[in-house]
Amino acid sequence: MEIQVRPVDRQVMADLMNEGMSRAMARVYAGRGIKSIADLEYLVQRLEHIPMKDQDKAVSLLLEALENQSHICISGDYDCDGATATAVMVRGLRSLGFKNVDFLVPNRFRDGYGLTPPIVEQVLQRGADLLITVDNGISSIAGVAAAKAAGLKVIVTDHHLAGEVLPEADAILDPNQPGCAFPWKSTAGVGVAFMLILALFWELESRELGEFPNPKQLTPLVALGTVADVVPLEYNNRLLVDVGLRRWRKGWAPEGLLALARVSRVNIENLQASSIGFQIGPRLNAAGRMDDMTIGIRCLLEDDPEKALELAKELDQFNRERRVVEKEQCSEALIALPEDPTGQFGLTAVIPDGHIGVIGIVAGRLKEEFHRPVIVFAQDGDWLKGSGRSIPGFHLRDALADLAKDHPDWFKAFGGHAMAAGMTLRAEVIADFSREFDQLVETRIPTEVLEKSLVVDGILSPAELSTALAEEIRSIGIWGQEFPEPMFMGSFEVASCKVMKGGHLRLELALPNQRTVAAVWFNQAEAIPEGTWLQLVYSLDFDAFRGGALQLRVIWGSEAPQASQELVA
């Protein structure tokens, strides 16, 4: 394991300290590109004058639909981003006076991905006049064409990368489409949907067409979808997550979200982005992975607390089933990999009886274990359905696009973004695909990138090891993809060690002046003798069982050489 110290601009760090930020937090934020405290001020109003391409067209279409009370159908993706985007669009339009709004989400197992002509047929059967896609649509050329041919008006809202040809929709909102000047290209699908609702709200206000609830009431949904989709937390996404978390912590969230937090055993008063990513998001995602995301969206739209809790319990059960299947499929995927996976650059695994809803998670697990781009396939007749996960430095969707350009007969469909993608591949070409994918990764990723590493935010002094700093990190930080939670390193002497139930360690680490600090080291079952010096990488946490005292959460550690037995600020 290579430990790297995050580079930081010392002048920016000094400027942040002059604005009143502590030394430790100034170093953390300077290392993440923050230049002023203003970069951490999150107000929805700051989004008002930054339109997306086709935003005005979409608002005009919606104003016309409002005047005519047209029937609107929302068609979303079947993941957490798509579910929350659907809920945002349905709730948002209804709150702005639309009376005929419903939704239709494809079933992963029956319908496949995206807006397809058969999905359009279902939309038409519902009597829709206007079709709005959320978190999909940018690659649905045939589906949009079918909708237009049937006389529907179509608004596409998406965030995925566009292909060489765009769908012929009446309006397309996608920050990644050619010619869109919207600066925050990593906005999630739910964020794009929210931006359209926000733009419509501001237009209705400016025309004095009535009094409507502020769409910021939808931001807890936006926070959930944004974090769960693991998009980079650039400013726009941090803003939306921050506003959503603050409302959620006060209980100002849809009943479905409060119920999901309850079944996830999350205390909303201390709700963090990490709780969304690891506890709440997977339960919502489980509906689309194991059954039908319609159940998840119904939970997000439910206003009755008891009914919302029943739906949340159903989602929790789906998640339990998902965990069992995931464990089995991970074992099968490991068997399908080469004997020495680290001897290759890009990994592929075929699970003949693979579960289509779980192979993406399996790909993510393998990516974390071997630090390689990974694609896991499930057999589907003459086709293989694949889901891939990548590492920083390798754009997975672009790689698939290049392979499809060279071999157009290999693919039935593909799509996604830099870190995650899906595809349908001819089964008979899997050997050739695996070889070329491996070669493509080799040519595009430097060998050193494939070595596991941890990037830390330097060393804390004994005085900085405090509940005050831990609280500062927890209370004001929005941490996630490409804006990681702070990690620090240091050398500590073990004052005591206890092996806990489940194979974890609880340590007491000696500090100067007879002071000790507690630490927990998960999945480390071997006791460490007192007096041993350890080099640790850790984050700051709280011990819920000891009145919220400071606790280090060990991320990596090794026995420290004699020369490094010192805690240096």
Explain what you see.
The chain has 17 helices and 17 strands. The chain has a five-stranded parallel beta sheet with strand order 3-2-4-5-6, sandwiched between helices. The protein has a five-stranded mixed beta sheet with strand order 7-8-9-11-10. Strands 13-14-15-17-16 form a five-stranded mixed β-barrel. A hairpin with a 2-residue loop joins strand 8 and strand 9. The radius of gyration is 25 Å and the shape is globular.
What is this structure, in a nutshell?
With 569 residues, the chain is of the alpha/beta class.
Q: How do the strands line up in the largest sheet?
A: 3-2-4-5-6
User: Please, what is the average pLDDT?
Assistant: 93
Distance between the termini: 22 Å
Sum up the overall morphology in one term.
globular
Query: Rounded to an integer, what's the Rg over CA atoms?
Result: 25 Å
Percentage of residues in strands: 15-25%
Q: What is the count of β-strands? A: 17
Helix content: 25-40%
| Distinct helical segment count | 17
Say what oligomer this is.
Answer: single chain
Residue ranges: pLDDT <50 for 5 or more in a row?
A: 565-569
Q: Major sheet: size, sense and barrel closure?
A: 5 strands, parallel
Derived from helix and strand composition plus strand pairing, the structural class reads alpha/beta
Task: Spell out the key features of this protein.
569 residues, five-stranded mixed beta sheet, 39% helix, 19% strand, globular
Topology at a glance:
Elements: E1 2-5, H1 10-18, H2 23-30, H3 55-68, E2 72-76, H4 80-95, E3 101-104, H5 117-125, E4 130-134, H6 141-149, E5 153-157, E6 171-173, H7 189-206, H8 219-228, H9 235-249, H10 255-263, H11 273-290, H12 294-301, H13 305-336, E7 347-351, H14 359-370, E8 374-380, E9 383-389, H15 396-406, E10 411-416, E11 420-426, H16 430-444, E12 453-456, H17 467-476, E13 488-500, E14 504-510, E15 516-521, E16 533-543, E17 549-559
Parallel strand pairs: 1-12, 2-3, 2-4, 4-5, 5-6, 7-8, 15-17
Antiparallel strand pairs: 8-9, 9-11, 10-11, 13-14, 13-16, 14-15, 16-17
Helix pairs in contact: 1-2, 3-7, 4-7, 4-8, 4-12, 5-6, 7-8, 8-9, 8-11, 10-13, 11-13, 12-13, 13-14
